[in-house]
Design a protein that fits this description.
The chain is an alpha+beta fold. It is built from two helices and seven strands. A four-stranded antiparallel beta sheet has the order 2-3-1-4, covered by helices on one side. Strands 5-6-7 form a three-stranded antiparallel beta sheet, with no helix packed on it. It is globular and about 35 Å long.
């Protein structure tokens, strides 16, 4: 299972950039930022997306792994932070 990432950038992106950014969901915020959310297969793919954001000239504000599969244990996002579903906190 792919890890789910949330990448926040300064500025607003149109939905049309989703395909170019590996199918990440584009969510525009009222504060003038855009959040890109979706599965990324591995670290090489993550760096590829980060490179594409750099090529667009958008300042990158944050990158968070918000859900991951680790040995069959899933992680869920609640209130902006990741929490392990089988007890314990990340």
């Amino acid at each position: 299972m792919d890890d789910i990432y949330r990448i926040r950038v300064s500025g607003h992106l149109d939905d049309r950039w989703s395909d170019w950014l590996g199918g990440l969901t584009v969510q525009r915020r009222d504060d003038g930022t855009t959040v890109l959310v979706g599965p990324i297969v591995d670290q090489a793919a993550l760096h590829g997306v980060i490179d594409l954001i750099r090529d667009l000239g958008l300042p990158q504000l944050a990158v968070d792994c918000v859900a991951q599969s680790n040995g069959g244990t899933s992680w869920d996002v609640q209130h902006g932070c990741a929490r392990q579903s089988k007890g314990g906190n990340r």
